[in-house]
Design brief:
By secondary structure, the protein is α/β, with parallel strands linked by helices. It contains ten helices and ten strands. The protein has a single domain, classed as Rossmann fold. It is 36% helix and 25% strand. It starts with 5 loop residues before the first strand and ends in a 5-residue tail after the last helix. The chain binds adenosine-5'-triphosphate. The site of adenosine-5'-triphosphate (ATP) has 11 residues, from helix 1. Keywords: ATP-binding, Hydrolase, Nucleotide-binding, Phosphate transport, Transport.
Length: 253
């Protein structure tokens, strides 16, 4: 069988003595949006953060098993974690622009990864990123203003622009709309849909409506186990497992 873009096999995560994920086997397909859903504490964020080794920042956190991206073992000790996180970008729950200008927020990653060779190239790349994030028209005339002078929804799109600037293979999103109002949420959802032609996206969401609107694949977690994964339409209309059925109908969670 052809290998999936991201492949977890027998993945376990512990925080100290406590096991948060149990024997996860999950395939994530390239250039699609995969939603991770499930009740609070089921391990969605832990799995998401395992993909770019963000959990390494938590000293008591331990991963075992296999997690491959494009055939490369993410937990191979030889992996350069900084390079990995450029390849696997992350957008967080609360927009967290750097205390710098709009331009600098996007240019920063390009600079530290040495991805441009001239000022013009940098300016072009920043413009391309802001366009990709659907923000260019709103900020083109105020690139020197601080990133945090934007509205919450614009700040989140700025964070997405910053992430796409370095052209990652994968974008991880941890409840990216939970701090946004419905209009800003709709813009970010449209943006996610347009980004999937170029990027593989994995998103944690508490909103089943959002998962149904924006994802092609859905993985349902419960108590640290992956219960079911499939095409979003199947998982929501015809789930295989009773626990999934109970969650989507509001009986658990
Ligand atoms: N830094 C940490 N230290 C210790 N335990 C943790 C830590 N982060 C998460 N956990 C535990 O791991 C389990 C899974 O948590 P995780 O945040 O992955 O769940 P989640 O499904 O994303 O929850 P939520 O929807 O509430 O964000 C929980 O029992 C949680 O208490």
């Amino acid at each position: 069988m052809e290998q999936s873009f991201i492949e977890a096999r027998g993945a376990n995560v512990h925080y100290g003595e406590k096991q948060a994920l149990f024997d996860i086997n999950l395939d994530i397909e390239e250039k699609r949006v995969t939603a991770l859903i499930g009740p609070s504490g089921c391990g969605k964020s832990t799995f998401l953060r395992a993909i770019n080794r963000m959990n390494d920042l938590i000293p008591i956190c331990r991963f075992d098993g296999s997690l491959q991206i494009a055939g490369q073992e993410v937990y191979d000790p030889a992996v350069d974690v900084v390079a990995l996180r450029a390849q696997v970008g992350m957008v967080f729950q609360k927009p967290n622009p750097f205390p710098k200008s709009i331009f600098e927020n996007v240019a920063y990653g390009l600079k530290i990864h040495g991805m441009t060779s001239s000022k013009t190239e940098m300016a072009d790349r920043v413009e391309w990123s802001l366009k990709s994030a659907g923000l260019w028209d709103e900020v083109a005339d105020r690139l020197e203003q601080p990133g945090n002078s934007l509205s919450g929804g614009q700040q989140q799109r700025l964070c997405i622009a910053r992430t796409v600037a370095v052209e990652p293979k994968v974008i991880l999103m941890d409840e990216p709309c939970s701090a946004l109002d419905p209009i800003a949420t709709a813009k970010v959802e449209d943006l996610i849909d347009s980004l999937r032609k170029d990027f593989t996206i994995v998103i944690v969401t508490h909103s089943m409506q959002q998962a149904a609107r924006i994802s092609q694949r859905t993985a349902f977690f419960h108590l640290g186990k992956l219960i079911e994964v499939g095409d979003t339409s199947d998982v929501f209309t015809n789930p295989r497992e009773e626990q999934t059925q109970n969650y989507i109908t509001g009986r658990i969670g």
